[in-house]
Every structure is written in C-alpha cells, then in structure tokens.
Write a structure and sequence with these properties.
The protein is about 45% helix and about 0% strand. InterPro entries: CopG_antitoxin (IPR022148). It comes from Candidatus Doudnabacteria bacterium RIFCSPHIGHO2_01_FULL_46_24.
Length: about 90
C-alpha cells in the first residue's frame, strides 16, 4: 500500500513555519525513500584538514612550474592531483 504524502503548506514567515513543525510530524510530508543521497549543500566548501607531507623537492618544483603555467596556486594543483588519484578505480 502506497503512503499518501501530505502537501506542504506555504508559510508567511519563519515563526509560522516553526509553529507548524512544533505540532506536525514531518514524516507525513516527506517520502524518505526518495531522499537525496550525496551533498545536500553543494555550494558549501568541504571541511579541510591541514597535514604535513614530505614530498621530494624535484616533484614540488615540477608542480610549481605546472601551476604557474595554469595560473593556479601550486597547493590547489596538488590537491587536484591527489583527488584524481584517489578517484581512480
């Protein structure tokens, strides 16, 4: 038996919406089986972590040259290289 999903009302302001959700069950208004998987906020930058990594000088020099040619910071280019390497199957 398919569940009936109620139509979500239009709210005039946040207070009205807050009051509504205080007295209603959200599972009656959303079908969680169709929930989006993946980033919910695509415009937010992912959290990053600073690490210390020893890389041979000649590799860093080559990356800096390439980054200069592409007019991007060399650290950003290194992150792109690492991300591509991790994404490979």
């Amino acid at each position: 038996m398919k569940r009936h999903i109620k139509k979500l009302p239009k709210f005039k302001n946040e207070d009205e919406e807050r009051e509504f959700w205080d007295t209603h069950d959200s599972t009656e208004y959303f079908d969680l089986s169709k929930a989006m998987i993946g980033p919910l906020f695509p415009n937010l930058k992912p959290t990053s972590q600073s690490i210390s990594l020893r890389i041979p000088s000649h590799i860093v020099a080559r990356v800096k040259i390439k980054a200069n040619e592409l007019d991007v910071p060399y650290q950003s280019l290194m992150k792109q290289y690492i991300a591509k390497g991790v994404a490979k199957k």
